[in-house]
Amino acid sequence: MQELLENFINYLSIERGLAKNTLESYRRDLNKYIIFMKSKGFSDATRIDREQINAFLFSLKDKSLSMNSISRNLVAIKMFHRFLVREGHSKQDPTSLLESPKLWKRIPDVLSSDEVEAIIEASYPRDWQTIRDRALLELMYASGMRVSEVVNLKVSDLNLDIGFVRCLGKGQKERIIPIGKSAILSIRRYLDKTRPKLAKKEATPFLFLSRMGKKISRQSIWKLIKQYALKAKIKKEIKPHTLRHSFATHLLERGADLRSVQEMLGHSDISTTQVYTHINKDRLKSIHQKFHPRP
């Protein structure tokens, strides 16, 4: 089965174009699955049936894995067995009648428009660092890009004259995202006044650089966001995706259509984007409870 697993991972990499982290996640989950099946005397994938798969899922539950983790494992198993049937290694798919557990999607924490504004204003450009940080914060909120995407953004990915940024997201999928005047102004200031000093004589292609002239790290971005949130006296817990979640929520609150927001976020499945519509409903409910004379 180990050889079949490697063939499956190669298929996901070459034909499906999945990201390296996603591939490693599939490999880890399926390695656990294979080890379990071998311990039960099933070294041949074609002999595995629904009963054994259920036993594996229950073993995960006994280990106190979350429902999200169990569901992720089942998705990997389903894809693996479908691959085996497609490639002619198996005649039947034992997962065909298995249903994934319904997951409660956790509604992400978001900031209000005023809170985002306060964080950005806390980075008022005074020196090289605040000029860089202001450009970075403006871009993240204007585009909804992931921290990992901002880290790998190159100067050549910008088209400030038209107002777009080219982003390479998960699975090496490219998307074009519009950005507003505030972000463009801050990025131009950074490119003119700060980046040449940080880059020194090194010809680095990356947009946001550290004090040493190297590509800024994800940890540094997370730290600076929390730093400015603290300075702005924001008491909410700040996470790497907070600005991204806020970007999506604020667009939908102001009437943007779900498909457009999905495209800008780079979600392959619209159900992932739909979680932000629940935030709107919860917000309306809290407003109703707070201000209605008969709550």
Could you please describe the fold and organization of this structure?
With 295 residues, the protein is mainly alpha-helical. The chain has 2 domains: 2-86, Tyrosine recombinase, N-terminal domain (DNA polymerase, domain 1), CATH 1.10.150.130; 113-290, Intergrase catalytic core (hpI Integrase, Chain A), CATH 1.10.443.10. The chain is built from 13 helices and 3 strands; from the N terminus they run αααααααβββαααααα. The chain has helices spanning 2-14, 20-39, 50-62, 67-86, 113-121, 128-143, 147-151, 181-193, 195-199, 218-231, 242-253, 258-265, 270-291, and strands spanning 158-159, 164-168, 174-178. A 3-stranded antiparallel β-sheet has the order 1-2-3, with no helix packed on it. A hairpin with a 5-residue loop joins β2 (164-168) and β3. The mean pLDDT is 88.
